[in-house]
Amino acid sequence: MPDDHTWERLDRRAYLAGAAYTLGPAGGAALITGYWLAVGNGLGFALAWVLPPLVLAVVAGGVAGEWMRRVTRFRVDPERFHVHTGVVVRKRLALRRERIRSVDLTADPVLRVLGTATVRVGTGEQAGAEGTVTLWPLRRRDAEALRATLLAHAAPGAGGAKGAAEGPDDGALARFDRRWIRFAPLSVLTPALGAAAAGGLIQVSEWFGLQEELFETIGSWFGLAPAVLVGVLMGVGLFVVGGVATVALWVESWWNHTLDRQADGTLHVRRGLLTTRSITLEESRLRGVELVEPLTARLAGGARVDAVATGLATGEEDKTDSKTLLPVAPKELADRVAADVLREPASATAAPLTGHPVAARGRRLRWALATVLGTEAVLVVLGLLLTPVLLHIAWTSAIVLVPLAIALALDAYRSLGHALTERYLVARSGTVRRATVALQRRAVVGWTVRQSVFQRRAGLVTVLATTAAGTGAYAVRDAAEPDGLALADAAVPGLLRPFLVGPTDEVGPADGVGPAPDLATGPVSGPGPRPAGR
Hints:
Elements: E1 8-9, H1 14-41, H2 43-71, E2 73-76, E3 80-85, E4 91-96, E5 102-107, H3 109-114, E6 116-122, E7 132-139, H4 140-150, H5 155-164, E8 171-175, H6 189-207, H7 211-222, H8 227-254, E9 258-261, E10 266-271, E11 276-282, E12 286-294, H9 295-299, E13 302-309, H10 319-322, E14 324-330, H11 331-341, H12 358-385, H13 389-415, E15 417-420, E16 424-429, E17 433-440, E18 444-450, H14 453-458, E19 460-467, E20 473-480, H15 481-491
Antiparallel strand pairs: 1-2, 2-3, 3-4, 5-6, 5-11, 6-7, 8-9, 9-10, 10-11, 12-13, 12-17, 13-14, 15-16, 16-17, 18-19, 19-20
């Protein structure tokens, strides 16, 4: 056991940080409570009841922060990262440094004022919080030094990454552009936040006994306008409110975004306005990229880039954003960043794709119409049992939902496609969230072949490439059976062949053109491929 003086502790300003975190919610509760007490009893009475608990809560928060500082210590030796914490329930961690996958820094407004940061050390284990060690708070320069020390083992892998493929040297791969903000309102959050704002306003007005006055005021704005016009105007108003809120959240999260390649073989993402985040990803852990195009952003020509990598911690609060290398930006830029990240001259996500058979279109049309008809059937049954109003809602909503469902189904079919390049398996699917993944062929460790009864009758098959990176599996959906099996066998030669009939048969080219061995259930022929829609 090392000497006690070799251990380091959290920053002494943990007391101030704990007190500041408590002051926010406790101060808000005290303000509301004090208002109600002062209405009938006077300001002095309210302060006498509110201030002592508020002061006690703030002091308790500071004591909790100081206690955390005193019971937590850590050190780094040449082989391990040691963290000791707790008194009654003691926790002793000794992480091998080569097992450390990420060291991320976060600083909210309180920590920024204090010059400190939160450090999250990820081991990449799939065990939730057990795969992440959090040190809060550390002085900013100490946090940066700790990250550099823990990720020093990544440097030898950098040369290997460069040797694999030619690409950009160390430096900036992407810089924040204010024009990206135009994509922020094009999100499902916009109507959701608008509806939340309306609900919150109604709830607050009820608390203060002003709900009736609120409705009367809103009604006076429209006078005798038709109900349909009133509904449209209120919908537009809520959309505007939701759009403003979405833009504010986007700016807070992605302001000053930068994506850099460091000399130590890591990709470094910095972002944030009030709360700054600094995320590090080793290039040696990168297994591909995923180009994600949400429907509304895609209509405006936008896409984002996510990393497909091993060792991303699963217990982090912002684990979804932790894999995002580029927020929604123009698709041309997203393709270029994807290529630069992979050190390729051109992005595999922009490769020409082979389309899927017409039978896949029929499946999507049936799914879409069945979903709409199921919803309408519920409304009709409730309308017959409860009120005829629901019957009118059913037929009017069907006029909108049926064409919308058909349009989304056709778009989903046009989005289907796959390709096989020299180094990558490329697959695309989805409509509301269209995703194009470029996965390194060497990262595929297994295949899962799925074929339902309906797929078998249509000559279709879904092939999933299993990998240790990203979500764990990426699917080529509803491909013609011969094409899907040929793609899998060509992507990783020999891996799927033992499970196919006729192991001595020749397998066709990478894009599924030519004969392929059949599944053990017997040969099934399907319609030929078509060019994928762009």
